[in-house]
Structures are given as C-alpha cells and as structure tokens.
Design a protein that fits this description.
single chain; alpha+beta
C-alpha cells in the first residue's frame, strides 16, 4: 500500500505538504445511492480566506465536528474529496507536486488564480437560521463534479454566485 510510505513524514513535514488552497474546506454532499459527489460554495466558517488557513486549526475537529483530520491512515479513503493539485493526493498517486507548490516555488501563483474565486465562497455558521436557509438553497443548486475532469477548474468555475441565492 502506497500510503504506508507516508508514515516516514514527521507531523511537521506532513502538515507542510498542504498548499492551503481551502478546497477541502468546502462543504461536499455525496449521494449515497450513486456516490456522486457534489460541491457547494459553502466554506467552513473557520477558514480564513485572506490568510488561507484555519482559524482554529489545533482544535478544528473539536469545533467543527465534520472536519476530517487528514492522516496517512485515512488518505486513501478521503483522497477523492481532494483537488487534483493536492500534494497528498499527488503523492498517493505517485505524481509530482505541482511546480507552483509552496515547497517548490518562491512565488505562489495559486494566490492569483484560485484565490480570486474565494470571494464567491460563503462562510456561514451552521447554527443560524439564515445560515441554514442559505445552505439549504445552495445544496439544492450544488454542482456535480466529474472526478476525471480537471477537478479544481470544474469546482472553481461552477461556484454558485451570490445572485443565485
């Protein structure tokens, strides 16, 4: 099993693999019968779009019960929820890291392309009436993602706009 080789990383090295794009922090819906994966434009309320990180990272799985802590042990099971450019997914599939990855490049072109789309994400607390209403409407309009296509492009180009709510 390829994921066994991930156990050679220290926790610090493992965490450094993340490029902080935030795509894994988007709410996803999986249709149980067909296993079709849907992405909404709802991003975790704890994701800081400006800083590109989780505001409660050490306590993220406690404060956000649906947050999945990515580990070498669960990587294979959750990898389809990650974008193609995700370092963890690349390494699992035996692919090279993208040339723009922060570990390889001084400049971060991700901030120019992907982050420009973050303004379209909605960050809502899940326990508010308004949040629940907006999330319900967004779920009804969620976009199906074909994993074989350019995953992050499909996701980012099919975000639901505020005017659709």
């Amino acid at each position: 099993m390829i994921s066994n080789s991930f156990h050679i990383f220290t926790e610090e090295e493992w965490e450094a693999l993340c490029d902080n794009c935030g795509i894994c922090c988007l709410y996803k819906i999986e249709e149980q019968d067909t296993e079709t994966l849907y992405f909404t434009r709802i991003i975790c309320e704890f994701y800081n779009k400006t800083a590109r990180n989780c505001m409660v990272y050490p306590e993220r799985t406690i404060k956000m019960k649906t947050c999945v802590r990515l580990t070498p042990d669960n990587l294979e099971a959750v990898q389809r929820w990650l974008p193609k450019h995700c370092s963890y997914r690349c390494l699992l599939k035996g692919m090279e890291l993208p040339k723009w990855h922060p570990l390889l490049a001084a400049e971060d072109p991700l901030s120019r392309s992907t982050l420009s789309k973050f303004s379209q994400f909605v960050r809502e607390p899940l326990d508010t009436e308004i949040g629940s209403f907006r999330i319900t409407k967004t779920i009804r309009k969620a976009k199906s993602v074909n994993i074989d296509m350019n995953f992050e492009e499909k996701l980012l180009n099919n975000l639901i706009l505020d005017t659709d709510l």
